[in-house]
Amino acid sequence: MIEIEGLTKRFGDHTVLDDVSLTVAPGEILAVVGPSGAGKSTLSRCVSALEQPTRGQVRVDGQDFSRLDGAALRSARRRVGVIFQSAPLLRRRTAAQNVALPLEYLHATPESARERVSTLLERVGLAERADYLPAQLSGGQQQRVGIARALALAPSNLLADEATSGLDPATTTSILHLLDELRTEMGLSIILITHEMDVVREIADSVARLDAGRIAEYGSVSDLLLDPTSSLGHQLLPDRP
Ligand code: ADP
Ligand code: MG
Questions:
Q1: Which of 52, 108, 122, 223 would you call most buried, defined as having the most Cβ atoms within 10 angstroms of its Cβ?
Q2: ipTM value for the complex
Q3: Sign of the dihedral through C-alpha 155, 157, 161, 162
């Protein structure tokens, strides 16, 4: 569960996030949309505790990150899996070795790590590609490895920051539908930063539009679709022939 309350983030005198409040319950997908520079990645970095809020709170599974440090913060961070744009995998490591990375940091035994990695690769549909290097995988397959790696430590929350940009539409759809299945299976709270309005309509429960660091619109996808005055609702409507 992710609870963001009155989050303000400033860099110098530049206010990048201004009093942002959002909630993502277990098993829910919140889509965050908005133009480049709106503050979406900064929001994501505040939730993964890579940035400290200037004001306000981020609570993950009920715990306020800003009150934690050292070992407690490292352990809390494990509850948030992050999928990056273009899945930056280690080039000299196989798919399986990339997925094993977070487990190695935790000093998992080789046997338990092997078992966990094979379960995860199987789940993302890459059991047969375990020993391939990233360069031998397609962009979509690399992103699946990135998802498996993000899930290695069994987080209860997932952040995907434009995780499908650069992928073709069919691959994008299949990756986002994989996330949709995983949130149901694992009860994940997911924040999905994306431009894919078709997919937002299909898989997100709620959607927030950020504009210059403020929440311009926020609501459930079904409410916004029914609201004729909502600009987000219009963007969410399927293209009519
Ligand atoms: P988005 O992901 O929506 O494109 P970002 O969160 O990346 O937006 O950036 C929002 C604004 O914050 C931009 O104007 C960016 O230049 C600024 N910004 C982001 N990170 C930093 C930083 N570490 N220091 C200073 N300014 C930053
Ligand atoms: Mg960004």
A1: 108
A2: 0.98
A3: positive
